[in-house]
């Protein structure tokens, strides 16, 4: 469970985003919340987040409880990905080179050839510097 400070902040965000004040967020309200907080999230990702936050009920609205639960899951995922990244950043450079990235892939249980790993690296490395930053690692993992 997230700390009280996070829950308070998330509750404030939720209430601000609930523009029609019905106690839940619709897809458009979630989209505006993300946009207002500087996120440039593609519509397909917003839809995915909405569906995953909406939970088992699938009632096309996100309650405060679902919102907090969803953000807690994201927070946990970020912690886990950061831990994996730092574990494999052997030289503490702040990025993963091809060898370090290959170790992540192999430890994750994927059976990929060296060429397949190179190809994947190129796909998730938008600036083609053969270095995976933490941000690029997050983007590739979502």
TrEMBL record:
It comes from the Eukaryota. GO terms for molecular function: calcium ion binding. It holds the Pfam family EF-hand_7. PANTHER family: CALCYPHOSIN, CALCYPHOSINE LIKE. SUPFAM superfamilies: EF-hand. This is EF-hand domain-containing protein. Residues 5-40, 76-111, 112-142 form the EF-hand domain. Residues 64-91 form a coiled coil. Keywords: Calcium, Coiled coil, Metal-binding, Repeat.
């Amino acid at each position: 469970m997230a700390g009280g400070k996070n829950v308070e902040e998330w509750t404030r965000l939720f209430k601000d985003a609930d523009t029609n004040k019905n106690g839940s967020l619709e897809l458009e309200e979630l989209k505006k919340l993300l946009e207002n907080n500087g996120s440039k999230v593609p519509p397909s990702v917003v839809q995915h987040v909405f569906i995953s936050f909406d939970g088992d009920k699938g009632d096309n609205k996100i309650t405060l409880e679902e919102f907090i639960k969803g953000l807690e899951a994201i927070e946990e995922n970020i912690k886990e990905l950061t831990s994996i990244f730092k574990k494999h950043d052997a030289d503490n450079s702040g990025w993963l080179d091809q060898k370090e990235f290959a170790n992540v892939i192999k430890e994750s249980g994927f059976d990929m050839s060296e060429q397949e790993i190179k190809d994947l690296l190129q796909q998730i490395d938008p600036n083609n510097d053969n270095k995976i930053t933490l941000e690029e690692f997050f983007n590739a993992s979502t």
